[in-house]
Amino acid sequence: MSQLSISTGKRGRSVASSSASTVSSLSSSTDLASLFECPVCFDYVLPPILQCQSGHLVCSNCRPKLNCCPTCRGPLGNIRNLAMEKVAGNVMFPCKYSTSGCTVSLVHTEKADHEDACEFRPYSCPCPGASCKWQGSLEQVMPHLVMSHKSITTLQGEDIVFLATDINLPGAVDWVMMQSCFGHHFMLVLEKQEKYDGHQQFFAIVQLIGSRKQAENFAYSVDKR
Question: Where is each RING-type domain found (predicted)?
Answer without folding.
Answer: 38-73
